[in-house]
């Protein structure tokens, strides 16, 4: 149902998909969806802000699902479960921010709300934009025990930072070193007069402990709440035009680097009205495997993969560990792999790739997003291109260590194995790893 600015309607479902959409093209800025859970118009803590760097609320009520680009039509999706919104929360604000320009440069901008159970559209709002770099596009709010949706269309020229701080978010800004001041001329300090300590004052008599009902002592007061950690708004999106980034320059050269792969099938897009569907795949037999070829600084090589139970290790060579095998493609689970960057001096190169183990003949009907989250530094994300070849293996990203500089290179390269050649051997040949392969199973 199309809505005009300021209009509202009652929401007939509690499980909802909120879709931010636009058309991509040369010179079109990227856009990002976000949500804020408000009490009396403000967040309670920075944890009430859900966005690309903080993709899930602790209550499970709101989750950032990620982007999809289908032939130039881009969507960024939030999953909202109103039944799980805490009773104190009065409003769930749905916002968007532009990265690299203004919303006046973003064609076909819209927000729509879908019933997550049926895939039907409940509401749609197409705002008019000019110089705005952030928008409050809509909001869910409580009225007499029921939830309503309102089309808001309030713009900001101060970007995501301005929008976030307006609702009480503490933003972690990069610290820039200040040039050292010139030395001040030395001036001899005047002699200090002698100091005589005053006599201590007598302490007042101790007050009796306060008591509650029936003379029972009251429980001790809770300590003051610790302020939440400021959120970081920085991120890196790799594209064909800008395919690489230095982890070193981003400050992400220590701690753990988490690599997440999530996906869905074309059938899911149809089920959810042409866009991303439920995180759990509609094909229970589909099994994608996230893998990594590695080469260490001592020349040793190997593979981390579920096949053959070669899950690796995080605190000993190869310092790469694969989580348990997953078949859902969910953004919070999916396939996950961790690299221990505290041992970066032992890592020469890592090729992260994905294979289809079963359930599909190629990546042509699958749509995936890759996110690398260093413990320190901005997250790195990219979507895979549309697959047009009968590929069962795709190189995702190559991480190389050159003189201590860790560089992430977006590959997004679909490979077609020759008849009788495994996906692993195919990707080995393409990248010159030179390993010997034997059949394996999981």
What do you see in this structure?
The chain is built from four helices and 25 strands. With 442 residues, the chain is mainly beta. The chain folds into two domains: 165 residues, sav2460 like domains (Lipoxygenase-1, Sandwich), CATH 2.60.60; 196 residues, sav2460 like domains (Lipoxygenase-1, Sandwich), CATH 2.60.60.30. The protein has a seven-stranded mixed β-sheet with strand order 13-23-22-15-20-19-18. The protein has a six-stranded mixed β-sheet with strand order 1-10-9-3-7-6, with no helix packed on it. A six-stranded antiparallel β-sheet has the order 2-12-11-8-4-5. A hairpin with a 5-residue loop joins strand 9 and strand 10. The chain is globular.
Please name the defining characteristics of this protein:
25 strands; globular; 2 domains; 442 residues; Lipoxygenase-1; mainly beta; 4 helices; 6-stranded mixed β-sheet
Provide the fold topology.
Blueprint lengths: L1 E2 L4 E3 L4 E9 L6 E9 L10 E2 L11 E9 L2 E9 L9 E9 L10 E6 L5 E5 L8 E10 L2 E11 L2 H8 L69 E2 L6 E3 H4 L5 E10 H6 L15 E10 L4 E4 L7 E2 L6 E3 L12 E6 L6 E12 L7 E9 L5 E4 L9 E10 L2 E11 L7 H9 L11
